[in-house]
Specification:
Blueprint: H1 3-10, H2 14-26, E1 29-30, H3 31-37, H4 47-59, E2 63-65, E3 72-75, H5 79-95, H6 99-109, H7 114-133
Antiparallel strand pairs: 1-3, 2-3
């Protein structure tokens, strides 16, 4: 994923995220169906606003639009891909792009259970194993 794509995925407006959430859950939809169902996922918006937002997401290459009539819109990215963009942006803001300050910040704010601490140790051990094989 290029830097431009990471910025685009991280720089989504709330309304755009709500539309993506709808497409992830509902699957491909026409503009009309997306407009009808959107109230379940976000604040109700007008038909032209829905069309504008969908077209912006198409321009950002986050949603695909079919050539058939009526056009069908579907998510072109997964939730995980969008989440990675947000995480990269957050990591840059909180830890200057470095992992340790970010993790230190998160751990200082968290009230971890014994199970979560065990899971973190397991993850660190797995990273250490990978580094040892390189």
């Amino acid at each position: 994923m290029g830097k431009k794509q990471k910025r685009q995925r991280a720089g989504l407006f709330r309304g755009e995220m709500e539309i993506l959430a709808m497409l992830w859950k509902e699957g491909p939809l026409t503009l009309s169906k997306a407009h009808q169902r959107f109230a379940q996922y976000g604040e109700s918006i007008g038909y032209p606003t829905m069309q504008t937002r969908l077209n912006r997401l198409v321009d950002k290459e986050l949603v695909r639009r079919s050539n058939e009539r009526p056009a069908i819109y579907q998510a072109a990215v997964t939730q995980a891909e969008v989440g990675l963009g947000h995480l990269a942006q957050f990591m840059e803001k909180v830890g200057s792009g470095m992992v340790v300050p970010l993790v230190a910040h998160l751990l200082s704010e968290a009230d971890l259970t014994a199970g979560e601490i065990k899971e973190l140790r397991r993850l660190l051990s797995r990273v250490e194993s990978k580094k040892g094989k390189e």
